[in-house]
């Protein structure tokens, strides 16, 4: 292990990987990560009250949300993390933390189940987090034309839509490169989707 | 006596926080991707603290680890790891390197430079 100077600015960055259940988020993370994807869990307690006046007992529910993530060492002092969103989009409390400070997001789409990604797209647009659409072609076949998908998802003409094979390291690498290039282009154009504070 | 099943989830919630003596609020907000490094003091004294603290000090002494990695390796929820790491940072045993958030502060230059570094790093993969 190299010895870093103490005054070196050690830092990290993250990219969010979203998409419906079973669409290939962890596969994509694992194809490019230098570690086997790890799982981190968050616990949330919610107390539902005032539902029934006769019931004086607060009904507490505890929810555990799991997120898979991977790691790419860019430099000895810069590490990039890829965080998969929780499978169920109802766990919004975790999404807030996931997108905070993120470079951008990859929304993986299975064209046979387009609607599965609507919630993620809505969320990123609302938070003004730049994202791209990655059509995962599991079987090497693309089931829909890219323009049809763009129309069906009603995403802006600038939003990149790429095809990918989430199992392929090279393919995933290209998806991430396209995303970062897109974010850089937007910053330089001053379009500032969620950037530039 | 009838078992009150409604209280079971509460027990499940309390147990993970036993290592923090029940505290759920960290002394320091730490992002899940923040990098944690054992300090020289942590190398000397970290191993003599609690079992979890010693494991964290050992883990982050050989390689930079994010809070999320610490939580995953320790098999503890993110919130529990955050309380432990924040305490150890306050005691000078760990250094926490916050992420270069793109959207927050730092100015455009910092964000653009970071993005360019990430981009060239990805191209080198």
TrEMBL record, chain A:
Belongs to the GPN-loop GTPase family. The keyword GTP-binding applies. CDD domains: Ras_like_GTPase. It holds the Pfam family ATP_bind_1. This is ATP-binding protein. Keywords: GTP-binding, Hydrolase, Nucleotide-binding. The keyword GTP-binding applies. It comes from the Bacteria. GO terms for molecular function: GTP binding; hydrolase activity.
TrEMBL record, chain B:
Pfam families: DUF742. InterPro entries: DUF742 (IPR007995). It comes from the Bacteria. This is Uncharacterized protein (UPF0261 family). The lineage of its organism: Bacteria, Bacillati, Actinomycetota, Actinomycetes, Micromonosporales.
């Amino acid at each position: 292990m190299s010895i870093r100077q103490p005054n070196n600015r050690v830092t990290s960055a993250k990219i969010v990987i979203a998409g419906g259940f079973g669409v290939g988020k962890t596969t994509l993370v694992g194809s490019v990560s230098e570690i086997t994807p790890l799982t981190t869990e968050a616990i949330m307690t919610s107390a539902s009250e005032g539902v029934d006046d006769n019931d004086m007992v607060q009904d507490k529910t505890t929810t555990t949300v799991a997120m898979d993530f991977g790691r790419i060492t860019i430099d000895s002092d810069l590490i990039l993390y890829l965080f998969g969103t929780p499978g169920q989009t109802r766990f919004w409390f975790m999404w807030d933390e996931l997108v905070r400070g993120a470079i951008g997001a990859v929304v993986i789409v299975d064209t046979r189940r387009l609607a599965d990604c609507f919630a993620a797209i809505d969320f990123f647009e609302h938070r003004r987090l730049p994202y791209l659409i990655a059509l995962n072609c599991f079987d090497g076949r693309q089931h829909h034309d890219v323009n049809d998908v763009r129309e069906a998802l009603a995403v802006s003409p600038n939003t990149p839509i790429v095809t990918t094979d989430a199992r392929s390291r090279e393919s995933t690498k290209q998806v991430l490169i396209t995303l970062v290039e897109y974010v850089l282009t937007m910053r330089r154009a001053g379009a500032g989707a969620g950037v530039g504070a | 006596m009838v078992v009150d099943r409604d209280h079971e989830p509460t027990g499940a919630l309390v147990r993970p926080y036993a290592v923090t003596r029940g505290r759920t609020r960290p002394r320091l907000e730490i992002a899940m991707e923040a990098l944690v490094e054992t300090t020289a003091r942590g190398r000397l004294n970290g191993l003599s603290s609690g079992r979890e603290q010693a494991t964290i000090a050992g883990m982050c002494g050989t390689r930079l680890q994010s809070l999320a990695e610490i939580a995953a390796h320790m098999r503890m929820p993110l919130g529990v790891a955050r309380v432990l790491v924040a305490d150890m940072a306050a005691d000078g045993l760990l250094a926490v390197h916050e992420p270069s958030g793109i959207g927050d502060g730092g100015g455009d230059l910092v964000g653009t430079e970071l993005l360019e570094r990430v981009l060239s790093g990805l191209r080198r993969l």
